[in-house]
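Subject: design request, 213 residues
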């Protein structure tokens, strides 16, 4: 009789263990899917077109190009950013973040985008200094909070030429860029491209401080 009861107990324990393992393998994928969805929602941010308040009036669409470069860099960091949306005021964006529930919204102003070259000579030497300067103001909008970050980069390219009969000359002028597109290989090799890559990385690091994936 005791052996019979022991057998029943062992069978019940074995059956319970098999049932628990079966339930685990059925529910684990479902839980994983829910966890993945939650993580995706937590990482989602929105970026608007920037506002160009610099003196740059060239052909490059800076209001689209800078947020697009920042978006691409953030996606590589694991954030979900569906697309660049149109510009909106702060009140509208605060309401949007309350209604749709993204982790945050990024908007920005281009305070300066300048490209200039300085030429001067002394005796037989002629100097040329190309300079690119970019200043961006970011607003990182979270639930009930607006954080401002300032990003700035300056890139210089210095060249010295020997000119036998060069006269003294000093001048500063804007660099006219019409031969290549924003983001092209020529752009990336230019001082404008170098400054752009640096300021995008600076913006990404500052965004990550406040919107941790």
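Subject: RE: design request

Done. Sequence follows.
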């Amino acid at each position: 009789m005791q052996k019979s009861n022991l057998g029943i107990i062992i069978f019940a324990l074995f059956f319970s263990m098999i049932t628990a393992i079966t339930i685990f393998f059925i529910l684990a994928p479902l839980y994983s899917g829910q966890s993945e969805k939650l993580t995706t929602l937590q990482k989602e941010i929105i970026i608007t077109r920037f506002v160009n308040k610099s003196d740059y009036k060239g052909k490059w669409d800076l209001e689209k190009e800078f947020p697009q470069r920042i978006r691409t860099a953030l996606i590589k960091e694991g954030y979900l950013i569906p697309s660049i949306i149109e510009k909106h005021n702060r009140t509208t964006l605060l309401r949007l973040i309350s209604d749709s529930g993204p982790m945050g919204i990024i908007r920005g102003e281009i305070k300066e985008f300048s490209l200039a070259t300085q030429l001067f000579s002394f005796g037989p030497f002629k100097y040329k200094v190309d300079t690119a300067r970019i200043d961006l103001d970011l607003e990182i909008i979270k639930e009930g909070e607006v954080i401002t970050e300032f990003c700035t980069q300056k890139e210089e390219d210095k060249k010295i030429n020997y000119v036998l009969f060069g006269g003294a000359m000093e001048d500063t002028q804007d660099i006219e860029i019409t031969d290549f597109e924003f983001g092209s290989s020529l752009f990336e090799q230019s001082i404008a491209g170098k400054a752009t890559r640096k300021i995008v990385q600076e913006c990404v690091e500052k965004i990550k401080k406040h919107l941790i994936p």
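Confidence is low (pLDDT under 50) at residues 23-41, 166-175.
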